[in-house]
Design brief:
Layout lengths: L8 H10 L4 H14 L5 E4 L1 H9 L12 E4 L26 H8 L6 E3 L11 E2 L3 E2 L15 H8 L5 E6 L5 H7 L25 E6 L2 H11 L29 E2 L12 H18 L2 E2 L10 H16 L12 H5 L1
Parallel strand pairs: 2-3, 2-6, 8-9
Antiparallel strand pairs: 1-3, 4-5, 6-7
Helix pairs in contact: 2-3, 5-6
Length: 331
């Protein structure tokens, strides 16, 4: 049996099209890796549904035959819809999120759900429902959150790409903790239908990937207006096609490790500056010194998310408080 593909998803599709690997073999390797893993990166597996999809995979599609983990806070019809919260452990999703439906249409095979923090509210992945998810680089460390299971699965060699979501760093933090590409897209670029909730208007959908081109292909597959999400944006074509075609030479850039308000370790500040300067040199950018002072809005951000959590819990709250993780409970 093959080990799971350790390159990016685009190169895996190339392998399928060349006949050097098959979607069924790749899925079997994915499940074998999950079974042998110590990462605790998956909250639910759907072997029957995934094997049926792999058997009929059309490798001419953008993600034809590629196993893609789905963050457990994203709805997949028939899968648990627990929000990673013990009080909601019996809930089951009745629909696919728009992003999931578009991934299926793009040929993706969905092995299961990757772990997340409860309601996506904190930047580590450890819940009463699923325990702690581990960082593949160091099992004593967290992969971050809330898309921690997605990051652990992709960086740990269990699947080549996984879905994520980011309201306050939930894609970017796990990507940073595990060495992946983690882009927070423009709000509305990927719709939140079919049952969009107007809660925190900072949360966007996206992915955890091993390459920039994978992230671009993901946007090509998933972006575009959905009438069920009034905040979604018109479709944009050619994210992958246009990679490398934008001339940035002479444009000005600021490197701002703290954004004026964050507390950042000196080692990390040094790393951000050194790598930022290297990227600027490669792209021909001009680094300028302009003060960046963003307001500290964590209290307001938390309130907008907590209102949505109260809605999710409904009549279970406040009696369910003892079953919530400490951060959700105190919020």
């Amino acid at each position: 049996m093959h080990e799971p593909w350790l390159g990016d998803a685009c190169s895996l599709v190339d392998e399928f099209r060349a006949g050097r690997r098959s979607p069924v073999e790749e899925l079997d390797a994915t499940f074998a890796a999950i079974d042998a893993s110590k990462l605790n990166a998956w909250s639910y597996l759907d072997p029957d549904g995934a094997r049926a999809a792999a058997a009929r995979a059309d490798v001419s599609l953008p993600f034809g035959g590629v196993p893609i983990g789905v963050k457990q806070l994203t709805s997949v019809a028939g899968w648990p819809a627990t929000e990673a919260s013990l009080p909601l452990k019996e809930q089951v999703a009745g629909h696919d999120a728009t992003m999931v439906a578009r991934l299926r249409a793009g040929g993706a095979v969905l092995p299961g759900a990757t772990t997340a923090s409860e309601f996506g509210g904190v930047n580590l992945t450890s819940t009463k429902l699923h325990g702690a998810t581990r960082n593949p680089w160091n099992l004593e460390s967290t992969p971050g959150g809330s898309s921690g299971g997605a990051a652990a699965a992709v960086a740990g060699g269990e699947c080549s790409i996984a879905t994520g979501g980011d309201g306050g760093g939930s894609i970017r933090i796990p990507a940073g903790f595990t060495g992946l590409v983690g882009l927070k897209n423009t709000y509305g670029r990927i719709p939140k239908g079919p049952h969009m909730v107007v809660g925190s208007l900072t949360a966007v959908s996206g992915c955890l990937a091993r390459s920039v081109r994978d992230t671009a292909r993901y946007l090509d597959v998933c972006n575009g207006f959905d009438a069920r999400d009034p905040y979604s944006l018109p479709r944009v074509e050619g994210f992958e096609r246009d990679l490398g075609t934008h001339d940035l030479k002479g444009k000005r850039v600021v490197i701002a490790p703290t954004l004026g308000s964050a507390v950042v370790h000196p080692e990390l500040i040094a790393a951000v500056i050194a790598n930022g300067e290297a990227i600027a040199r490669d792209a021909g950018l001009v680094v300028v010194d302009v003060p960046v002072e963003l307001p500290e809005l964590s209290y307001e951000w938390a309130l907008s998310g907590l209102a949505e959590i109260v809605m999710e819990l409904g009549d279970l709250y406040p009696d369910c408080e003892p079953d919530l993780t400490p951060r959700s409970r105190s919020g």
